[in-house]
Amino acid sequence: AKYVYDFTEGNRNLKDLLGGKGANLAEMTNLGLPVPPGFTITTEACRHYLSAGSVPDGLDREVAGHLAALESRMGRKLGQADDPLLVSVRSGAKFSMPGMMETVLNIGLNDESVHGLAKQAGGNDRFAWDSYRRLIQMFGKTVLGIDGDLFEDALDALKGRRPDTGLDAGELQRLVETYKGIVREQTGREFPTDPREQMRLAVMAVFDSWNAPRAILYRRQERIPADLGTAVNIMAMVFGNYGDDSGTGVAFTRDPGSGRQGIYGDYLQNAQGEDVVAGIRNTIPLEDLERIDPPSYDQLVSIMETLENHYRDLCDIEFTIERGTLWMLQTRVGKRTAAAAFRIATQLVDQGLITMDEAVTRVTGDQLAQLMFPRFDHGAEKKKIARGMNASPGAAVGKVVFSSERAVELAGRGEDVILVRRETNPDDLAGMIAARGILTSRGGKTSHAAVVARGMGKTCVCGAEELEVLTAERRFSAPGGVVVSEGDVISIDGTTGEVFLGEVPVVDSAVVEYFEGAEPDDELVKAVDRVMRHADGARRLGVRANADTPEDAARARRFGAQGIGLCRTEHMFLGERRRLVEELVLATTDEERQVALDALEPLQKADFVGIFQAMNGHPVTIRLIDPPLHEFLPDLVDLSVKAATHEATGKDRRLLAAVKRLHEQNPMLGLRGVRLGLVIPGLFAMQVRAIAQAAAEVPGARPEIMIPLVAAVQELESVREEAVQILAEEGVAALIGTMIEVPRAALTAAQIAEAAEFFSFGTNDLTQMVWGFSRDDVESAFFSRYLDLGIFGVSPFETLDREGVGRLIEIAVAEGRSARPDLHLGICGEHGGDPDSVHFCHEAGLDYVSCSPFRIPVARLEAGRAAL
Ligand code: PEP
Ligand code: MG
């Protein structure tokens, strides 16, 4: 295998192999943009290293060859004493994981080459020693695993109240000695001075950082597969820390918050890479670069235009200016907020850069779902205490906490929290995930907090500089003498950047109002409208709703549902009516049973009339009752306790006997669904009659009767026979079909299709039975361990497991259609509203997906994307 690619050899399509950063560095190199020369070690080499524990054979030789080529190109050797080449070693996985993995800059410096570097820089000793101390600090922390605070504290002690740029060459030289001492003390060894050794160790540290706890956590959150590995980019160093004629920055070609075109970014003079994101000093807006260094600014603007036209999308970039020369260090199609994604997609259409088809593929169902979150009520009274940057939109209310641990702890108890920090770093990730929102007092729109929050779709206000955050004292102060302590409630608006004291009421989003029927008026809603119309025109899958009440059915219709795919009738037996079901189950004679059924039938009929009316001529799939019995019967222990006391009535005792008789160790695999229908005479018949009579009353009603939990065609046949007869008696037409929830049903689909006009895949139960995971228990018990181990990347109850459950569905589709070519096929498990699962359903050839009313727009959009 080839494990190393020069930047001139790759291109943007090689992300799997070169990672996003490597692929895009190659792309920019090929576009003729100013990228420092270098090469990329592939993700394949990383995967080999992580599984075998050592680098693959031949890698060292390949790296040496590429390094030699780089050296001859630069006319300097790595770490050469009198005139050193220095390199950076940077991680870069297929999917961007901002700040989660490692980077080491200034590789090649040691006690000799530091003088060579100073000479190279025209006698700039300060710069050389600053670069050297940075190397030891980064290398010490990331490669040698030394606590970074030890270095930070030494730096702080030396500089006092001065900024880091205030240190002179002599002081920095002393700092290098201190740092070397820290390395000696912490590792028992000297800081490695052999440049090649430095590089080799740094490469392995980058490989290892793939499995750093924060990287694992981030991948799980972002559903990035655990087995991809990272590439490593080795690039000739360019220096932003030469002096005030140098600097480093990050920029977006459009506002990642709103989508507006322009120059958005932050710049830091006399600084190196990590300083900007880490928020060490306050950055200046990129516009100010126009004043500081007009030629570089103009060149940057023109490169940004080139990149946008080339990638036909918003790009973000990292750049460095070295004594007036601009260098591009990174670009990628940039992360953006959900609102910006919709706006940008339609803006690019209007600019003629992409088609409407492409625009639909540029937005996701998850982004649409985010836009449907509530926002703060504009009319409500609020006490504003500060304003920061609107880093990631949304409305979050919660108790203030000041540490990641505390955020996790309180959120674990079900509390809503807002994580407040001066600035965040990758160690705060767990707290950011646990919090409803994130508030920082420092850092710009490209700070760690902002980038990570946007990626997670979490509300974030950053850089609220009026706030003084006193982490150790667990409080912050705001102008006007306001002091907010841990546990106090605040509200933050990530769309405007405002921070409010106390709880501010939230209201529906404008996008929800649009789905509810309001005219699209603002720019965002218009963009959503255009995208949704196009997606609807493109999709082949129908979209139905899981709804059990006329209200839900009506909302589902407004949201675009083309029918009901699952009406769970047991939900109609809860509350008051539960008593009637109890009596039905406990009845010992036909008479008692009939009394209970007669009481239920008119209630059922009225339910169905309401739903048929709400659906106004669209199909309604009604599932006959499927209650896990334990949900309907009184608790065995409670009853036993009661029976043992003297309060128990005769009925209680009768109930206890029955509950004991019916008690199941494993109710989810017990007397449910069709089994119950076959055991309790008259129950299904009552339901079918109620459906038929309701349909007869509502003009245009289109009932479809669905039998749950079927495993064998014989079960279905006997229910079907009775249903057909009742429908004939009532003079009503209805399809009769089945759910496919038991593996045996999928495997015998050809037989089952003989007795079913439609199948609906009940993937909740099907997943439970295929994996043997109790759907009621496992998510808490061991899923997090399974996610850590990479047994799956996301819970199979959330996203359909294509290989196992999906394979059964494919078998059932093929067999079912071969027996009955016009068999109608849908899905009604929770997966029906999950983006990835919708794509699977499209590919598997289903006719529709059915999901909860609020997910319907998401399913419509994803069905459109799947078809494009
Ligand atoms: C299913 O099992 O996927 C299903 C839709 O039925 P329920 O969730 O009601 O068991
Ligand atoms: Mg089920």
Automatic annotation (TrEMBL):
Please report the stretch or stretches of sequence annotated as the PEP-utilising enzyme mobile domain.
415-497
Q: Does the keyword ATP-binding apply?
A: yes
The regions listed as transmembrane in this protein's record are none
**The protein's Enzyme Commission number:** 2.7.9.1
Per its UniProt record, the required cofactor names are: Mg(2+)
The UniProt entry, under InterPro entries, shows: ATP_grasp_subdomain_1, PEP-util_enz_mobile_dom, PEP_util_AS, PEP_util_C, Phosphohistidine_dom_sf, PPDK_AMP/ATP-bd, Pyruvate_phosphate_dikinase, Pyrv/PenolPyrv_kinase-like_dom
- Print the keywords alphabetically: ATP-binding, Kinase, Magnesium, Metal-binding, Nucleotide-binding, Pyruvate, Transferase
Query: Where in the numbering of this chain does the PEP-utilising enzyme C-terminal domain appear?
Result: 531-864
Q: Which SUPFAM superfamilies match?
A: Glutathione synthetase ATP-binding domain-like, Phosphoenolpyruvate/pyruvate domain, Phosphohistidine domain
Note one Pfam family from the annotation. PEP-utilizers
Look up the domain of life of the source: Bacteria
Q: Which reaction does it catalyse?
A: pyruvate + phosphate + ATP = phosphoenolpyruvate + AMP + diphosphate + H(+)
Domain (Pyruvate phosphate dikinase AMP/ATP-binding): residue spans on this chain: 61-282, 298-342
Q: What is the uppermost EC class here? A: transferase
Q: Which PROSITE patterns match?
A: PEP_ENZYMES_PHOS_SITE
PANTHER family in the record:
PHOSPHOENOLPYRUVATE DIKINASE-RELATED (PTHR22931), PYRUVATE, PHOSPHATE DIKINASE 1, CHLOROPLASTIC (PTHR22931:SF9)
Similarity annotation: Belongs to the PEP-utilizing enzyme family.
Q: What's the protein called, per UniProt?
A: Pyruvate, phosphate dikinase
Tell me which species this is from. Answer: Nonomuraea antimicrobica
Q: Which gene encodes it?
A: ppdK
